[in-house]
Amino acid sequence: MSHFYATIPTSMRKTTPTARGNVNTGITTETASYMGCIKTRLYQYKGIDWFEVSMEPWHNIGDTVVLASGHVGDMQSVVCPLNAPSKR
Questions:
Q1: Which of 14, 16, 58, 70 would bridge with 32, disulfide CB 3.0–4.6 Å?
Q2: What is the pLDDT of residues 6-26, one digit of tens each?
C-alpha cells in the first residue's frame, strides 16, 4: 500500500504525472537542469517520516550538498547544514 505520493503539477505534459512509494521503498524525485540536480527523498525510519533535500551533479556537472533534512510536518526538526555556524 502507498505511504508516499509525488506529483509533477507544472510541466509541458497535459496530465499530471504521479508516483507512489511505501514505507520500505520511500520515494525519491530528481529535478534537473544542465547545471545540476535537486533531489528530494521521503522515507520512513523507526516509524517517523523523514525528508532530505540535496543538490547533486547532473551528468557530472554541479555540486553535492544536503540543503535540508528533518521530520515531515515538523518545522522544529528541520536542519539546514548550510545555515549552521561554522566551526573554525
A1: 58
A2: 999 999 999 999 999 999 999
Considering only CA atoms, which of 83, 46, 49, 43 is closest in space to residue 66? 83
Residues 37, 29: contact at Cβ < 8 Å? no
Domain residue spans in the chain? 4-11+23-83
Taken as a whole, the chain contains a residue count of 88
Decide the pairing of beta strands 27-33 and 36-45. antiparallel
Beta bridge partners of 70: 51
Q: The cell 548550510 sits on which residue?
A: 82
Q: Kindly report the pTM of this predicted structure.
A: 0.86
Separation between Cα atoms, residue 50 and residue 8, nearest integer Å: 20
